[in-house]
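Hi C.,

You asked whether I'd gotten around to modeling the 145-residue construct. I have! Everything is below, sequence then structure, no commentary in between.
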Amino acid sequence: MFIVNVEGAIRKKDKWLIVERSEKEEHAGGMLSLVGGEVNIEGNSSDILERTVKREILEEVGVKVKDKLNYVQSTSFVIGTGENVVNIVFLCEHYSGEAFPKSPDEVEKVLWLTTEEILSHPIAPIYLKESIKRAESLNSIHSSS
C-alpha cells in the first residue's frame, strides 16, 4: 500500500512558490519543498488528485491556483516510518492570494524563487530540483503554444 501525496509547482511570472518546511515535519523538515500534501480517502470520487492539490495549496499558503493543472511527474520514496509514498507533481498557475505560512506546523516560510535560485539553493533537495526542471520544461511548452 502507498500513501498518495500531491504537490503543486506554482508559477507566477518567472518565479516558483517554494516553501521551507517546518522543522516539526517528520519528512524533510527544514528543507525546501513544493506545496502539497496527502490525498484523503473519499470512496468513489472524481478529480481527487487535482482537488487535493488545490485544497492543500490554499490550506498551507493561502493561495488559489487556476483550474487548469498539468501533470509534471510521479515519483516514489520511503519515509522514515518505512511507509511507501507515491508523489504526483502538477504544474499550477497562480490565480489569487498573497502567499504566507498559513499552516505554521507545516510551513516555516514561503519564497518566490527563479529556477536558477532553486537549482543553486543549499537546502533544495535533489528531488525538488528535478521537479522544478521538469515543470520548467513543461511550462516552456505550454507558454509557447
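If it helps when you're writing up: The first strand starts at residue 2 and ends at 12.

Thanks,
B.
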